[in-house]
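Per your request, structure below.
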């Protein structure tokens, strides 16, 4: 599936050659002054002895700029290059979506078919789930990776396709009624891979290779059933610990459709061009791929069939992010301008997304007709430095929304952080935005009674604003009162159990799956812990106020029930 690369590969390639078979236009290479500006955006990832990234830019029918920064393999001092083979994470979904679109055009499936026509083994949830629901992430099916974490996937283990299917099979309830809202779930695309296999009569990886990769000449791209196989030129993934030291990242998931795709920037340039000069499929297929979701209430959502369709600087843009096991990936294509940008990183650094916006800002003319540009729209992390950190001190803490979503806000190094990893910028007063995304904002309200925050997001399918209430720590209960929480709690859907124990006047989650985790009581029925998959647990009581179980809710899962074993 993967060709052998030449022994000598330059770490810097600036080209303007036309891809074979594409007969339109010729793009000029970037001038030195512009290349210097691009290099300045990515210089933080060009350190000796550290992992970094690979960047590519297409214009018309050509890859006009491609460069590697930092190392693809730190141990052996191998540089990143445009030919480095990367695990591209959730960028895989657009290929799964396109494969589904091509099958629909061939009459082998219909996007509004009930998934049970192809997957008769799926549970009947009492609501029709269509192929389109899977493509749009509006099915309500829980994320299989999150389910695997809760059920105890060991750190040295791997989540395979069959394991993921087995987990999905056991689910008895949905996060919500299909079509009611959008919620990103990898399970949707795991199931789509199975549907493509059934509808095409081929193995999923083979069909995608024949229908998409081969026509585009993507010779170094493919879905890998077993990611442990040796791949020549593979970039290794790395994470950075609290001390700033890089460590090898472990790739624990190997599921088709949602991920498991390996590619290079050179290959992905061919795919980016296909959005506006299609060679695999045609313009109508691309139009179908870019059709936005519509919810049951008629509201439109920007996620289409494996790709997001948004507006940037006044232009239509197709984009998608990915992240797993130290790899952080991004693609954005401006079809009306016939331009696109690709970034693959192996440094586990989410600032790549902000860098992608900065890169596009160098080349995409501002057609938004705005007379002023908000400071928060700039992506330089210097914009996140607080002038008066103490003034935002009262906003620090944990916040819970009615749908179970949890947010933590904290000040660290003179900056404001959400969930300890997302950098925020102060727009004005008590309005805080995600750095580089001024439309994603949190407006805080502080009173003597409580502190709340209203959340606004262009793609939020909850009623807006979504209100979070600050949780008050420090609820003190006697050992006798705490004893009522103790016991074993079992999930029939995951076939796993957790115990709550009392130790030294403190409640803990304990199991043979993970180390014990301290429980923080936020009111008598809301529990927080260091388990990210148990970020919020709601205690369930019967009519006599006796504890009979709990429900787990996080970003991927809602109201997953565990019953207390008597």
């Amino acid at each position: 599936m993967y060709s052998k690369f030449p022994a000598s590969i330059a770490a810097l390639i600036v080209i303007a050659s036309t891809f074979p078979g594409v007969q339109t236009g010729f793009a000029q290479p970037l001038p030195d002054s512009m290349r210097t500006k691009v290099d300045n955006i990515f210089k933080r990832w060009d350190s000796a002895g550290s992992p970094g990234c690979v960047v590519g830019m297409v214009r018309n029918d050509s890859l006009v700029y491609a460069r590697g920064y930092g190392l693809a393999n730190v141990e052996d001092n191998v540089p990143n290059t445009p030919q480095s083979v990367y695990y591209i994470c959730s960028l895989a979904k657009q290929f799964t979506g396109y494969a589904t679109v091509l099958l629909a055009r061939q009459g082998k499936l219909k996007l509004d078919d009930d998934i049970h026509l192809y997957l008769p083994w799926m549970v009947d949830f009492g609501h029709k789930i269509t192929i389109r629901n899977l493509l749009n992430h509006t099915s309500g099916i829980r994320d299989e990776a999150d389910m695997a974490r809760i059920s105890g996937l060991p750190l040295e283990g791997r989540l395979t396709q069959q394991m993921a299917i087995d987990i999905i099979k056991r689910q008895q309830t949905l996060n919500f009624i299909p079509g009611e809202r959008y919620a990103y779930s990898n399970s949707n695309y795991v199931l789509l891979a199975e549907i493509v296999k059934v509808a095409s009569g081929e193995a999923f990886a083979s069909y995608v290779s024949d229908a998409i990769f081969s026509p585009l000449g993507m010779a170094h791209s493919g879905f890998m059933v077993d990611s442990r196989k040796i791949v020549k030129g593979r970039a290794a993934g790395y994470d950075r610990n609290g001390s700033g030291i890089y460590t090898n990242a472990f790739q624990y998931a190997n599921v088709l459709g949602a991920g498991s795709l390996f590619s290079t920037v050179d290959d992905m340039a061919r795919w980016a061009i296909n959005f506006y000069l299609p060679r695999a499929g045609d313009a109508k297929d691309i139009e179908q791929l870019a059709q936005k979701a519509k919810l049951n209430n008629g509201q439109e959502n920007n996620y289409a069939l494996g790709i997001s369709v948004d507006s940037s600087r006044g232009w239509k843009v197709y984009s998608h992010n990915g992240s797993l096991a130290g790899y952080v990936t991004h693609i954005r294509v401006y079809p009306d301008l016939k331009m696109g940008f690709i970034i693959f990183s192996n440094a586990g650094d989410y600032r790549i997304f902000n860098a992608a916006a900065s890169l596009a800002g160098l080349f995409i003319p501002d057609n938004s007709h705005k007379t002023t540009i908000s400071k928060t729209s700039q992506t330089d992390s210097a914009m996140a430095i607080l002038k008066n950190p103490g003034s935002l001190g009262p906003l620090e803490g944990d916040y819970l929304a009615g749908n179970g979503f949890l947010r933590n806000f904290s000040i660290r190094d003179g900056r404001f952080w959400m969930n300890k990893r997302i950098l925020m910028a102060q727009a004005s007063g008590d309005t805080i935005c995600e750095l580089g995304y001024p439309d994603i904002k949190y407006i805080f309200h502080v009173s003597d009674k409580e502190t709340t925050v209203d959340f606004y997001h262009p793609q939020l399918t909850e009623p807006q604003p979504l209100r979070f209430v600050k949780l008050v720590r420090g609820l003190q209960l006697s050992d006798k009162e705490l004893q009522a929480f103790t016991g074993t709690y079992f999930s029939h859907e995951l076939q796993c159990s957790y115990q709550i124990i009392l130790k030294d006047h403190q409640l803990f989650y304990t199991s043979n799956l993970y180390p014990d985790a301290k429980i923080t009581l936020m009111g008598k029925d809301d529990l927080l812990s260091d388990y990210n998959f148990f970020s919020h647990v709601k205690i369930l009581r019967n009519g006599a106020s006796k504890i009979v179980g709990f429900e787990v809710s996080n970003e991927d899962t809602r109201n997953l029930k565990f019953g207390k074993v008597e």
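Confidence is low (pLDDT under 50) at residues 1-27, 371-379.

Regards,
D.
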